[in-house]
Each structure stands twice: as structure tokens, then as C-alpha cells.
Amino acid sequence: MAEFENIYAKSNPFVRAHFDCPTCGGKLWEYAIQGQMVCEDCRELYPSKEIFDAQVSQ
Ligand SMILES: [Zn+2]
């Protein structure tokens, strides 16, 4: 019987994004699977698109 390999157990699903938290200025991490970003300081969740649009329009 082949061994089932869970890729999510090995790889870190968080990708450090090049954006700052609009609430506290902390660094945002992109949670690629859900298309969301989470702040490492205040733990606030934001949709990736919302952050991207906000940074582009500055
Ligand atoms: Zn924050």
C-alpha cells in the first residue's frame, strides 16, 4: 500500500507578503490557500485582494 504524502504537513502555507498591516503597521503574511493575509502583530485577517488594491492605489 502506497504511503499517502501530505504536502501541507511539510510546507509552510504562510508566505511573507510585502505589505504592512493597515491597522498597526506590522508585517502581513499571506495565507496562500485561503487568499487571505494575517498580521503577525495584531493577528487581524484581511482578504489579499483588499490589501493589494489599497497598496496599489496609494
Ligand atoms: Zn496588525
UniProtKB/TrEMBL annotation:
Family matches, as Pfam families: Trm112p
Q: Which InterPro entries match?
A: Trm112-like
Q: Which SUPFAM superfamilies match?
A: Trm112p-like
Give the protein name, as stated in the record.
Small CPxCG-related zinc finger protein
Protein species of origin: Haloferax denitrificans ATCC 35960
